Task: inverse folding
């Protein structure tokens, strides 16, 4: 199971009713929509994507149909840009 | 070889040149308050610049001029006729590439009633023309070329240097403010025709007064267009200023936090204009 977490080198700021994130590793700044902002805030502790989706469903009830597709796409984008890190948990029996 | 010592904002410059056109333009366009002597300078200079001919031959045959920074040659030579603008462009380059203790944003900055207005945009957006017009209608010049942001206070630091006007803007400002002091016009440069406007005495006398930012404007000159002032979302303003910054990425999280605070404390707009008087009247009524 893949766990996701926020890159420690990412800063998030709320400004003028909107949200920004800055990754000091890449020097990139991105504008976050409310869902992406929530995803990054949740990833202050490692979570898997199904847990994130369940939480998003409760907060963004009016968008539940698109959430799953959006979440996959947003996570891939944020991983690619270095804002979140994908950890693979190894289960030792 | 003449040695000219300048103190502009937080920067001190040691300029050496034997070239009369450079010496005369610097002495004409920089206020006497900014000249240092060996006794008033503390011996430390941020930038050691030399403007000279590249070789003996190039003094006489198709004369050229070279810009030396710390004894090195960062640029190819330019025609001799462009010696003074070469100094100004080279000094811009020195600040933009060597200064990391301030956030630097490519923009003009003016001030009124204690609050600064940043005019930021890509070259050709009309920010220097609007800046020159504003400082001839009661605003104080902090800078024509770059906003220098103190990373501790987020206040703007003046670097009161000549305002660089290009092409049609030169005549526009001559007509707009007939008493303005303009230097020589330099033709066929990479930026077209260039002339420099001497900063007014009010800006010179207040050159040590930093100001908090209150307004951020992204101007765009559109010939014949009606004036439009449109609110700019603050997140977009941060991205635009980051794009126009020389050292935002290098300053990393410090640059991001400073820029966010600067923008958060300011009203942000996009301005489309074609008439300077209309633009000035509109900017005089910005909220405080």
Result:
């Amino acid at each position: 199971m893949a766990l996701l977490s926020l890159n420690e080198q990412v800063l998030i700021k709320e400004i003028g009713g909107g949200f920004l994130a800055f990754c000091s590793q890449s020097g990139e700044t991105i504008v976050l929509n409310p869902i992406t902002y929530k995803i990054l805030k949740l990833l202050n502790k490692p979570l898997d994507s199904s847990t994130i989706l369940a939480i998003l469903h409760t907060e963004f009830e009016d968008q539940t149909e698109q959430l799953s597709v959006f979440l996959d796409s947003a996570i891939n984008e944020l991983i690619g840009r270095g804002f979140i890190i994908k950890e693979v948990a190894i289960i030792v029996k | 070889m003449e040695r000219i010592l300048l103190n502009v904002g937080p920067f001190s410059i040691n300029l050496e040149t034997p070239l009369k056109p450079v010496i005369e333009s610097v002495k004409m366009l920089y206020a006497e308050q900014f000249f240092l002597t060996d006794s008033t300078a503390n011996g430390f200079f941020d930038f050691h610049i030399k403007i000279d001919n590249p070789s003996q031959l190039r003094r006489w045959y198709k004369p050229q001029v070279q810009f030396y920074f710390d004894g090195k040659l960062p640029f190819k030579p330019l025609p001799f006729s462009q010696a003074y603008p070469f100094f100004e462009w080279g000094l811009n380059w020195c600040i933009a590439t060597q200064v990391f203790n301030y956030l630097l944003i490519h923009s003009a900055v003016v001030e009124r009633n204690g609050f600064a207005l940043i005019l930021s945009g890509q070259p050709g957006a009309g920010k220097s023309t609007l800046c020159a017009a504003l400082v001839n209608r009661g605003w104080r010049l902090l800078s024509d070329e770059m906003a220098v942001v103190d990373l501790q206070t987020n206040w703007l630091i003046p670097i009161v240097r000549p305002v660089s006007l290009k092409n049609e803007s030169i005549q526009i400002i001559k007509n707009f403010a007939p008493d303005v002091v303009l230097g020589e016009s330099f033709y066929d440069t990479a930026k077209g025709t260039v002339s420099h406007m001497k900063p007014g005495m009010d800006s010179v006398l207040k050159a040590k007064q930093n100001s908090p930012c209150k307004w951020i404007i992204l101007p765009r000159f559109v010939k014949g267009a009606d004036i439009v002032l449109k609110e700019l979302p603050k997140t977009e303003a941060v991205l635009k200023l980051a794009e126009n910054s020389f050292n935002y990425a290098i300053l990393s999280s410090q640059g991001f936090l400073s820029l966010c605070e600067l923008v958060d404390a300011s009203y942000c707009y996009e301005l489309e204009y074609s008439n300077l008087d209309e633009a000035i009247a509109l900017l005089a009524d910005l909220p405080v």
